[in-house]
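Just curious. Protein, please.
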Amino acid sequence: MHNGRYDLLPFLPSAMEWVTASGGRVPIGRRPIEGGYEENGSQLYHAAVRIGHVIVPGKAGAHLVRTVLFGPLNLGVPI
């Protein structure tokens, strides 16, 4: 359950691609797509996680690094 505001960020296939990341690290040579800020000013990035056969959109940020429960995170990065 989610309480509060949230915004879904656009994903532009002509300018972005998904890359697998884990452990709070962006793959070498890649740059995450900025997606906004938390209310406290923490930077957010495009992200998604695969749960079974479903891809769930979400957010990533340095302040959100935790033990991965579902598998590797996918970050939106420029092509």
User: Anything to note?
Assistant: The chain has no helices and five strands. The radius of gyration is 12 Å.
